[in-house]
Q: What sequence folds into this?
């Protein structure tokens, strides 16, 4: 019998470069000749492409992609949307009007491209730059390139892919000391297509000058018009540069109503300078497979970052949150509250890391992930992680998984509520804890209604209330 | 008052002196029977032949070795060390004095003297503490005490080699049932080449009349030690097992890849405690420390069974260790209490896995990590609630303390839940010894070193109270020693 020794042991270190998958072949195929005037966007694409080639397709062997099954995606040829597919009209967007106000400031992108007729920029102060990336690339290429250069080479393969395939997006620049008190909405709509799998790659660049303040609502929406039976990918990148004392409040809502498999990837990267502040809430609703990657870099003293998240999932929706908060300077603070309500076969994955650099003393950071499992088939994975290299810091993290508390239910039932509605109220209250952390009442109310829409019949306080008896209704009113 | 203070400072000076060099860093001059360096199938066959093992054992070793060849050394831990040359290790060494002994008088006096230096005089221990000590001196057991007393109760406590001769059917039944040789790189290596270890069998309805204990020692230079421990607790039985380690100082890194398997059947309870204080390497260069890659896992096979791990990890250059529980039985309980202290250039990546399969299974994790100097201390854990684990419950608390601004503390807790009736809580915090606390103590005449000791003991209190009496005392002393000169 042949003796196996260390010498003839197969060498595992030598890895063969995998052949490009159908997905890669399709999305990275050379585009038609670039517009010479559009050199800025061409640079973004080239940088993105070479970065993607370095990173490669994320496999499940990577910890950050461990629970995401992208086999089907890898074997699908996703193509860019053709020019003339925009079949979205104002009525389709009616459910997405904040406060029902059709005149609110709004930038609408359909399948990755800016649509002027659906947008409303009249309310945006003139001092603010809010233009499509295409236009910015032509009219202010130096500014665009300068803004792009603030960000390091991405570590996220899909963010690199976004750059490699970007066609349009938004450049939003708020000059110093400018305060925008009404929310600006960025609607990134994808329609899907019946003829081929499609991928859209919108890219949003947001810059806040010193002392500027703004409130953004970014929505990644799969409209799911009938007939769109082919899979879709909505791959969004948001890059935020906040100068000293700037404040950005942002709500990111993701929902896919497509009939076929919908993949939603968002990658948000924030660079926060001295005493600046980012408060971001990511809300994932129904549909498909989604991954939200948020990376915040607290670059200078006193920067603050809040990342909150809410998943209200049903069906076989799978949502992955990957967050990284890097404390790179002394006396920065950060907090995170992520909550999930899981029904049916849905799945939520939270993978959050806080790193504290050696000199980032006096860091104060907290992280909390809570999950409510409402169905036998729902699943959750949570990985709240800390990497600390400084000693004078306060870092805490926590996670809970479970059902509603018996005692709380008993309290409500003992006051005359029927058990179903008590359960609904508590479930909604669980979600509301995240919603209530949002500053603007207008955005809060909008989000409440969007969340309620997404809750299954059996856990929805609204539908439960409708089926209550008169006495039970009055009990509800007393209890609020 | 001054008298107290004087005695305290005197003690400090003495302990500080003893800390200057590794306290247990001496070697015993006993001729070892060494195998040639290197690892092939022939090495594995030679080990098995030398130990006159039954055929199934050779099969097991060879299967493990072949599987090991197909595996890669894990890269995921937060550890940095030069590549290990597995061909540069002696896989078998045993003291030459081999014949079995009935009493301690027959044991090599030099060997006994070594134990004296270690502070575990067998003769004393036998009388005073009522602990049966199976002293593993460099891979082969040379003295087993209290064996006869234990046998009266039906308890088997012997070396693995003896177990293979006397109870092969028991070993065959349970060996690899909790940690299969396919489990991981180091477990596969251990399964192929393990030299000896301990075997414990507690029959039905038996409470082991005393605490069982093994002191490990690594001796011969360049010889990796591959221990294997198997503890089986039948229905309605109980055993408490203590493991303490010290090792002599050497310049070449010593690889240690042990495997511990526990099986608890219905209503049985196993309590496994460890104090680990192997040589951590030169404080300045990190040279010479032990590489400790250990796989420890228990299976709560029966209903209402319980396995409790308690560990105090203070030594080794590298600690890679995740004592885990598979909670298979309904209402089974798994516990993990850990203190991991790293100083100078030590690296520890340690934690636990609780795999919930049984209904209403419960687990508790309390982990305290202390990092000082330039060390890196990571907690890595997994709580997995499988679909069948109706009503499972977990509580996790992992706290880190950083001493000085050159060290790191990392926490990587994974929680996977597939059953909605599960209740899980995870908490973690990071802190330091505050100026206020030190000031408070100083004000009352307690020196800074002592104050640090007090605070650390408070920080670790939840874990120390789980240790058996004499171990708790040893652990408290150990932490104080290890942390001296790291504050202020």
A:
């Amino acid at each position: 019998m042949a003796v196996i020794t260390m010498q003839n042991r197969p060498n595992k270190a030598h890895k063969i470069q995998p052949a490009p998958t159908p997905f890669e072949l399709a999305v990275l195929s050379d585009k038609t000749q670039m517009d010479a005037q559009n050199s800025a966007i061409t640079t973004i694409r080239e940088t993105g492409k070479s970065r993607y080639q370095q990173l490669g397709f994320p496999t499940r062997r990577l910890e950050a992609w461990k629970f995401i099954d992208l086999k089907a995606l890898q074997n699908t040829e996703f193509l860019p949307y053709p020019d003339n597919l925009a079949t979205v009209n104002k009525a389709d967007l009616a459910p997405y009007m904040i406060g029902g106000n059709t005149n609110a400031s709004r930038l609408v992108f359909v399948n990755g491209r800016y649509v002027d007729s659906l947008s409303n920029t009249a309310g945006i102060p003139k001092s603010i730059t809010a233009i499509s990336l295409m236009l910015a690339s032509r009219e202010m290429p130096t500014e665009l390139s300068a803004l792009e250069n603030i960000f390091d080479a991405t570590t996220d393969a899909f963010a690199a892919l976004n750059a490699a395939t970007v066609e349009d997006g938004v450049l939003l620049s708020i000059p110093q000391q400018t305060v925008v008190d009404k929310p600006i909405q960025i609607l990134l709509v994808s329609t899907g297509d019946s003829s081929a799998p499609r991928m859209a790659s919108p890219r949003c660049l947001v810059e806040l000058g010193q002392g500027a303040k703004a409130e953004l609502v970014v929505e990644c929406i799969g409209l799911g018009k009938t007939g769109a039976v082919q899979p879709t990918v909505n791959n969004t990148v948001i890059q935020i540069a906040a100068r000293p004392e700037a404040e950005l409040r942002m709500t990111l809502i993701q929902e896919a109503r497509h009939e076929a498999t919908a993949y939603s990837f968002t990658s948000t990267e924030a660079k926060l300078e001295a005493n600046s502040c980012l408060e971001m809430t990511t809300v994932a609703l129904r549909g498909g497979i989604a991954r939200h990657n948020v990376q915040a870099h607290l670059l200078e003293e006193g920067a603050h970052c809040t990342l909150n998240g809410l998943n209200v999932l049903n069906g076989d929706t799978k949502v992955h949150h990957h967050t990284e908060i890097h404390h790179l300077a002394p006396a920065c603070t950060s907090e995170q509250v992520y909550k999930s309500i899981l029904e049916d076969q849905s799945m939520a994955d939270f993978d959050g890391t806080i790193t504290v650099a050696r000199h980032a003393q006096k860091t104060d950071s907290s992280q909390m992930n809570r999950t409510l499992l409402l169905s036998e088939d729902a699943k959750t994975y949570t990985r709240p992680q800390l990497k600390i290299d400084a000693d004078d810091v306060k870092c805490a993290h926590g996670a809970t998984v479970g059902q509603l508390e018996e005692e709380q239910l008993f309290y409500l039932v003992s006051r005359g509520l029927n058990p179903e509605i008590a359960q609904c109220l508590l479930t909604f209250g669980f979600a509301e804890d995240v919603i209530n952390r949002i500053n603007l009442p207008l955005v809060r109310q909008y989000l409440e209604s969007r969340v309620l829409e997404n809750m299954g019949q059996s856990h929805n306080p609204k539908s439960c209330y409708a089926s209550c008896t008169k006495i039970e209704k009055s009990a509800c009113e007393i209890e609020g | 008052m001054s008298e107290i203070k004087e005695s305290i400072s005197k003690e400090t000076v003495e302990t500080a002196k003893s800390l200057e060099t590794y306290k247990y860093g001496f070697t015993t001059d006993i001729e070892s029977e060494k195998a040639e360096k290197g690892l092939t199938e022939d090495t594995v066959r030679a080990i098995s032949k030398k130990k006159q093992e039954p055929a199934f054992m050779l099969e097991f070793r060879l299967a493990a070795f072949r599987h090991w060849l197909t595996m890669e050394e894990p890269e995921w831990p937060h550890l940095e060390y030069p590549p290990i040359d597995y061909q540069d290790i002696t896989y078998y060494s045993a003291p030459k004095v081999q014949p079995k002994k009935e009493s301690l008088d027959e044991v090599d006096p030099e060997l006994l003297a070594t134990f004296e230096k270690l502070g575990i005089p067998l003769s004393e221990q036998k009388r005073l503490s009522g602990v049966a000590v199976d002293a593993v001196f460099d891979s082969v057991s040379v003295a087993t005490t209290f064996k006869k007393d234990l046998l009266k109760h039906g308890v088997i406590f012997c070396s693995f080699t003896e177990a293979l001769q006397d109870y092969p059917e028991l070993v065959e039944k349970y060996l690899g049932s909790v940690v299969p040789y396919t489990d991981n790189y180091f477990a596969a290596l251990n399964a192929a080449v393990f030299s000896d270890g301990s075997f414990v069998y507690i029959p039905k309805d038996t409470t082991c009349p005393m605490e069982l204990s093994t002191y490990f020692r690594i001796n011969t230079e360049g010889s990796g030690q591959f221990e294997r421990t198997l503890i089986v607790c039948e229905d309605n039985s109980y055993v408490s097992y203590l493991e303490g380690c010290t090792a002599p100082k050497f310049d070449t890194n010593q690889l240690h890849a042990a495997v511990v398997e526990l099986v608890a059947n219905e209503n049985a309870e196993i309590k496994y405690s460890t104090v680990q204080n192997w040589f951590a390497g030169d404080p300045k260069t990190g040279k010479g420390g032990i590489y400790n890659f250990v796989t420890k896992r228990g299976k709560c096979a029966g209903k209402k069974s319980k396995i409790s791990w308690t560990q105090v990890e203070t030594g080794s250059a590298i600690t890679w260790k995740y004592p885990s529980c598979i909670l298979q039985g309904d209402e089974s309980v798994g516990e993990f209490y850990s203190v991991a202290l790293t100083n100078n250039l030590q690296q520890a990546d340690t934690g636990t896995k609780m795999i919930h399969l049984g209904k209403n299974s419960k687990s508790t994790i309390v982990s305290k990590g202390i990092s000082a100097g330039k060390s890196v201390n990571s907690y890595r854990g997994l709580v997995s609630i499988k679909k069948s684990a109706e009503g499972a419950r977990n509580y996790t608390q992992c706290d880190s303390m950083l001493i000085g601004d050159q060290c790191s503390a990392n926490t990587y807790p994974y929680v996977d839940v597939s059953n909605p009736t599960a209740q899980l809580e995870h908490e973690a915090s990071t802190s330091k010894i505050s100026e206020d606390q030190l000031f408070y103590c100083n004000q009352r005449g307690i020196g800074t070193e002592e104050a640090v000791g007090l605070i650390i003991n408070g920080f670790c209190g939840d874990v120390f109270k789980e240790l058996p009496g004499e171990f708790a005392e040893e652990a408290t002393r150990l932490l104080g020693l290890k942390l001296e000169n790291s504050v202020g």
